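Dissemination and training. As part of the outreach component of the grant, students in the summer workshop were shown how a complex can be specified as a set of sequence lines and then modelled as a single object. The example used during the hands-on session is reproduced here so that future cohorts can follow it. Participants entered these lines:
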Amino acid sequence: MTGPVLPLVMLLDELKMPFGDAIAAARSLGAEYVWFHDGPGKKSLPQMSGTEVDAIGESLERASLKLLVARAASAFKSVHAIDIDPSRVMDNSAYRRDYEDVVRAMEAARRLGVPAVCVFSFAWPGEYTAGKPTWPMRWATRGGIISEGEMERLAAAFAPVMQAADEHEVDVVVLQLSWNYANTTGNFERLEERIASPRLKLMWNPADSVNCGEADVAEAGFRNALPYLHSLHLKDLRVVDGTRNKFDYCAIGEGDVDYPSILRQLRAHAPHAVLSVATHYSAPDGKPGSAMRTNVEHLKRLIAAIPP
Amino acid sequence: MKFKIGMYLDELGMPFREALPLARDIGAEYVWWGDRPVGKPITALAPAEIVAMGDAMARNGLKPLFVRAGNALSATELAGLYAGPLEKNEAFRRDFDSIKASAGVAKKIGAGAICTFGFHWPGEAAGKATWPMRWATRGGVISDADMEKLYEAFSRVCELAETSDLDVVVVFQMSWNYTNTTGNFRRVAERVGSKRLKMMYNPADSVNSGEADVLVRGFESIVPNVHSVHLKGVQVVDGPRGKYRYCPLEEGDVDFETVLRQVREHCPEAVISLATHFASPDGRPETAMRTNMEFVRRLIGKVEGEPRS
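and obtained this result:
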């Protein structure tokens, strides 16, 4: 097998250059799709006017790039679920602000012709305010156990989002993050089963699943993620001290993520899944473009090595 | 060796002065109480009221086991505690005022100890958010960041105890607090490193928190810190979901015969303090307390007759 059969995606923010330059760089690195948090003028999609959104679409079209997903800024990344009253979710100002971002991202998605928006899945207790107090227990339980009270809050918080998704006819893609409830494939699956909407999808982030202590991410994790798989967020890391949340980012293929197994399964079961390459680590020359180029090269090498 | 018996007065469901003779009649020698029987928070007690409380206990032949600082450090969530220096945190300052007041009361009535709780786990008020993980990890894992906060807060309390020349600071174990198990209390005590930090050992809540081998390995690991023992009965119904029911001591999941044997062997000075938490068939708190006392008396009769190792 030569060359990637799995479409490449790039998170433009990782290139750390002006939006227009990042588009050109992504194209030259072989990306077919891109997505971003900050667009021109450091504005996220929910902050943009209709005209500005249309201009994004035109820029991408000129570069023959497609938008993977309309990112609703960092919606629901740092909102703590336990602060939400499940019977009155809109009373929580942080939630309401992010929900409004999500709806604006859905409107942008419609303008851009991309059928999905990207959100996060709410922070574990004290995650952004008290030094990640539940991390050791989450590690010890291979990703954390969502209590019934928390699940009730998560279901209540996602309900208006899924309703808006139906109205805008877009999917809601959850980007996995270590600090959020959908941090592992198992926890995402439990959340999905509770929310039970065919529009809820997953941008699988196997590195964060590994970093959260999930067992057998590449095999069992893949099977958990497969029915909901929208795309993959690819980065790599080495867990240094799992209990204390110490880890180092590194180039893809050099860390603890079993990418050969994941890529082999993708080709067998989800050949059209898109691979979004991120970096998070610093290249020896300190240039973000070099880190991205290294990760793309490593990824292509890993794909080429998949046995027939 | 004769066991010392105490009682938690709140469980009798009556005002302080009425509860004292009943507690004595049931068999208590030591008592402790919250704000409820007194009818006001400890910070609101006038000096004359405190003296009168001490006199009332003495008239009934009772001694104070310790003075409880209301609900200090009970429902305060550690995660939300520190937006800045400890002194600037309103929740901690309010609790610390209660602790200072309790030290004053202790000095006036001749109690040797004050009692606080051990801070709520994150999200406890939000449906016990971390309960399933605590159960799965046999009581919960205290993060480094949390431990630093616990160290800082309890160090202040221990400093106060030291300057007040109180013998001990008792941390009452509760399932919702960081000191919910013998293991977690021991870790906090080791971090704080003060000889003033003692505990009211509560085997029912340790069992209800999922701790393994509470009565032997757990107890023996905290022997130097044991001030007293809180006796109540609990049956774990569904541990991961935090479902349990309180019951008479005899019907619960804790083997109190072993508890008493361990106390006799390792810390015979510790007061064993009766609580109830369950409702007796006739609905009378006194009946529930007498039921537990009869059971404890039977166990004491058995254990006291055994040769000591």
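The first helix of chain A runs from residue 19 to 28. Students were then asked to discuss how this feature might be tested experimentally.
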